[in-house]
Amino acid sequence: MTSRSFVRVLSAALSLLLILVCSVAAQTPPKVIKIGAVYPLTGNIASTGLDCKRGVDLAVDIINGKYDLDLPLAKTAGLPNLGGAKIEIVYADTKGDPRNGMSEAERLITSEKVVAMIGAYQSAVTKTASQITERLKIPYVCSDSSSPTLTDRGYKYFYRVSPHDDIFARDQFQFLKDLEKKTGQKVQTVAVLYENTEFGSQAGKAYKRFAAEFGYKVVADITYSANATDVTSEVSKLIVSKPDVLMHASYITDAILFTKTFKEKGFQPKGILTMAGYIEPGYLDAIKADGNYVIVRSTFALDLGKNKPLVTKVNTLFKKKYGIDMSENAARSFMAPFVVADAINRAKSTDPEAMVKALNETNITGNQVLYPWQGIKFDPQSHQNIYARGTLVQVLNQEYITVWPFDAASKPVVWPFPEWKGRK
Amino acid sequence: MPDQLLQQLVDGLLIGLMYSLVAIGLTLIWGVMNIVNFAHGEFLMLGMFTSFWLFTLYGIDPIFSIPICFVGMFIMGTLIYRFIVSKVMKGPMLAQLVVTFGVSIFISNLAVFFWTPDFRLLPATMLQGTWQVGGITLSVPKVAASVGSIIASVCVLIFMTRTITGKAILATEMDRDAALLMGINTERINSLSFGIGTALVGVAGAFLSTYYYIYPQVGGLFGTIAFCVVALGGFGSIEGAFIAGILVGLAQTLGGFFFDPSYKYAIVFSIYLITIWIRPKGLLGW
Amino acid sequence: MRNFTVRQVIAGVATLLLLIAFPLVISQSVHIHVMILVFMFGMLGVAWNIMGGYAGMFSFGQAAFFGIGAYTSSYLSVAHGVNPWIGLVAGGCAAALVAAAIGYPCSSLRGHYFAIASIAFAEIVRIVFNNWQTVGAAEGLTLSMQNESFANFLFNSSKLPYYYIMLAFLLLSLAVCYFVATSKMGYYFRAIKESHKIAEVMGVNVVLYRLMAIMISAFLSAMAGTFYAQYVLYIDPGSVMVLATSVQIVLISMLGGAGSIMGPVIGAAILIPASEYTRITLGYKGTGVDMLIYGLLITLISMYYPDGVWKLLSKIGGKTRRSVNS
Q1: From first to last of its 424 residues, what are the pLDDT tens digits of chain A?
Q2: What distance in Å separates residue B271's CA from the closest CA in chain C?
């Protein structure tokens, strides 16, 4: 052999050796119950991914320790039916790319031997990650992705705890009807604004569908790129269409930019009803008082603690651990580990089929969840939590206050949207 | 809707002048060294963060931190040129491309490492709010940025055409070998140009920080548009970059308002393609 | 036609046997996945190389062709039940047609101008697909997991078929590149890369050969796109048509060695494992350290091995042959 081809073969062999070493190093002997979590921990949406992680980590603390809280498995250390076995979350970074969602989920299952999966916030990534779990027959409990299509697939192993965007969109129209009944304030026209990835366009479709159903006229239908350099054309178009209400499905970057541009151009609808981006903790941190009076869909708000002390207790723990209040994202991701652990505990096993059977029988009562729900119970066909519902919160004094449903509200909604000029 | 037309033109002009400011530094580097600086967007980001930290930690308003940004980014640009870019100047064009790309990944993730991926906004700074002129709404920080852009372009042009150093840079841009023959130290010119180019985009960042949110990946789309602007205007041409920036801003805003906002960047890129088919060297390129 | 030396044949066969044996020895799916990505990006790099390294058209928009391939076969499969293998060819043809359509007006563009034009073109394609309801717009297309078989280009129970198919595709693209490089076409490409004027003086139809380079490159890239769609079973413009993918393809080819047949493959073999394994081992911390390492790696390689790692390996191994391809 010439030295040249020898080098080629040698380098090929060395790379294979390197891979072998990595694969050996990647295996850890199973001592605890491992659950896989795929989230965008780096990349454009990292701040959200890390926020979700905070919720998950706190949940694991509570499950593994002894806490006097009305949450499943909180009062016992670990899983009592499995001799106090502890939960360990194995995280993987998706960077927001569906391809990584697929490969990381597969790696977590086949190399790390996780028995269940949670995550992935972005619906496009959850799609591919859950395709793998469905192929490999591992249960996937999602509590933070909101695209309705995820539970339309008839998957056997995929469960969703939280509400999806169809529910959220319908809520916002129901709110308008309730508002009219209560205060006589009438709304006739809506503008629909949404960012142009899977989340936004699904939400946009839902908005338009329910607008028709509830009898409102859509006077503007605008989509845009979430990290646009400038949105003055979009806002100008909104102003010209003169809507009574704006419905906006956004991520955090566009929420910030649009709010600034609304103020700059004096966009003055009667109300701004939004999804997702406006309830990210980074939004108010950045935009401060200019975020006031925006209404956002939510499953969680700190003021729910008035009627449900559990919320305040959990937030106290959260604040102790992280120094900040619990956000809606963290609160949503918080629930999935409990559902998984509860199912494993009842099944007394981590066998996938036993877990699926236990998940199908899940019946967590309303007092054991952080949200104003009747509880957690999965529809036998779609595996969507039938009790999942949203609330609407309004930003008042830079805090998220529950304003709807009216019987759960802690303060009356401020309507219409106060003028930009008059504010401090 | 003639009223809206005027407003859209004004909006387009304001964003366009910001694009021009971002692009001037890029076209200078490109023209002199024939290097595509992929890290340009990241320098913009650094300029924004510099302005942010100067305000948050020391209370210095962005308007006053501009000279600090300029000097700081100039030094950084020179260092990056001297230690990294100069090594690949003699190599193939692809190597130069890739080096700046590696630098861009490194810098944006360094920012994540030190400052976290969270989003920041500058709170009320000196330049705030809006002016109403006629029926048109003008955002004060954007107007300030536009004025800054015009001043910067004029300054650079005067520097290039009236000072010895500037003329040396122009000469190097036009014909590198001839410049060498005339006794110009092209290495120093390279270093100087890279420094000035980086300083200019740093200043653009300082202006941008007064009305746009700040985070490690903010350079992405602005960088891509800057490349388009530079190529549209013609590599190396300051006037070209200035005009092209305005054109791109107008195309984006008018196209977005009168056609469809979801296609506004497609319109920008289409205009680039059509222009380049007609004039392959860009509008004012040589 | 060049002849291969006996030693080259032995080296080649040995490497091939190692690659064939690899997934049978290493059973962990993550490593097989990384190798599949290496092959896929290797193929994309080889495709890029044909128009870039050989013909001098540095394209930063290959993701558009990759995506067109993925979308064509997926749409035909999902909406009309067309077999993915047929879709594979259809996707290649569609990409080649689009390539010709964009390549023709860009015939006189060179260097940086061409590069930016390719970015502009790819972004336009992405925006169009993002708004095009028929192919799913922003929601993308989801392919069915049912009925796994070779005929359906779908495998659930094991990754091995995907591995071997992608390896076969890669070898096919290398063969195409070899034939192009050693034929008259390759000679004309290199002339065009040097200078349009010189090529014209030599009697080369510059426009025609540029188009051919782009079309071949597009066809191969589209094939990789169909593979990706059948592998991941979900595509949307944000994952298959992004600038980041195009840039990665250029990086791979450049770092491996543009203008050499094996260059992009080596580049893929270095960069893909580097980015995948740093993300796997460090990404979950969320500090961005994995990307820091990646950026540093790219910067250092381009500073110290600007001609690409392939040339370096050749130099270590023996004296560099004074041939135009290796």
Answers
A1: 455 666 666 666 666 666 655 555 554 333 589 999 999 998 778 888 999 999 999 999 999 999 999 999 999 888 988 888 999 999 999 988 888 999 999 999 988 999 999 989 988 899 999 999 998 999 999 999 998 989 998 899 999 999 999 999 999 999 999 999 999 989 999 999 999 888 898 999 999 999 999 999 999 999 998 888 899 999 999 999 999 999 999 988 899 999 999 998 899 999 999 998 899 888 998 888 899 999 999 999 899 888 889 999 999 999 999 999 999 999 999 999 999 999 999 999 999 999 999 999 999 999 999 998 999 999 999 999 999 989 999 999 999 999 998 988 889 999 999 998 877 5
A2: 9
Of the options 3.40.50.620, 3.40.50.2300, 3.40.50.300, 3.30.1050.10, the CATH number for the domain spanning A166-298+391-408: 3.40.50.2300
For chain C, the distance separating the N- and C-terminal CA atoms, rounded to the nearest angstrom, is 13
* CB within 8 Å of chain B, chain C residues 75-94: none
Does the distance separating the beta carbons of C317 and A93 come in below 8 Å?
Answer: no
**Range(s) within chain A of domains with CATH label 3.40.50.2300:** 33-163+308-376, 166-298+391-408
- Cβ count near C2 (within 10 Å): 11
At A3, is the secondary structure helix, strand, or coil?
Answer: helix
pTM exceeds cut of 0.90? no
For the domain spanning A33-163+308-376, the CATH number is: 3.40.50.2300
Does the model's ipTM exceed the 0.90 cut?
no
Sheet of strand A158-160, all strands in order from the earlier edge strand to the far edge: A87-93, A33-39, A116-119, A140-142, A158-160
Chain C residue at shortest CA distance from B232: C113
Structural domain includes residue C324: no
42-71 of C, contacting B, C-beta below 8 A = 58
Give the CATH fold of the B2-278 domain. ABC transporter involved in vitamin B12 uptake, BtuC (1.10.3470)
Contact across the interface for A92 and C238, Cβ inside 8 Å: no
Phi-psi region of A130 (alpha: psi -120 to 50; beta: other; left: phi over 0): alpha
Residues of chain B contacting C106 with CB distance shorter than 8 Å: 273, 276-277
**How far is residue A400 CA from its own chain's centroid?**
17
A136 inside 8 A of chain B by CB: no
The three-state (H, E, C) secondary structure of A342-379, written as one string: HHHHHHCCCCHHHHHHHHHCCCEEHHHCCCCCCEECEC
Minimum Cα–Cα distance from B38: chain C residue: C247
Number of domains in chain C: 1
Residues C318, A2: C-beta atoms closer than 8 Å? yes
Q: C141-167: string of b/e by CB count within 10 Å (b at 16+)?
A: bbbeeeeeeeebbbbeeebeebbebbb
Q: Calculate how close chain B gets to A169, using CA atoms only, in Å.
A: 22
- Per the structure, the complete domain to which residue C42 belongs is given by 6-317
Hey, is the C-beta of C124 within 8 angstroms of any chain B C-beta? yes
**Which residues on A lie below 8 Å from B4 (Cβ)?**
236, 240
Residue A224: CB partners within 8 Å, gap ≥ 6?
Answer: A193, A195, A196, A231, A234, A254, B261, B262
Which chain B residues touch A228 with a CB distance below 8 Å?
221
In this complex, is the C-beta atom of A15 within 8 Å of any C-beta atom belonging to chain B?
A: no
Neighbours of chain A (3+ CB pairs under 8 A): B, C
| Chain A with chain C: Cβ pairs closer than 8 A | 149
What CATH number is attached to the domain comprising C60?
Answer: 1.10.3470
Asked whether residue C1 is assigned to any structural domain, the reply reads no
Q: Yes or no: say if A293 and A414 are a contact pair by the CB < 8 Å rule.
A: yes
Domain ranges of chain B: 2-278
Residue A93 forms contact with B (CB below 8 Å): no
Indicate which of C148, C284, C319 best probes the interface with A, i.e. most A CBs within 10 Å of its own CB.
Answer: C284
B211 contacts on A by Cβ (under 8 Å): 260
Token pair in block for residue A127: 């799609």
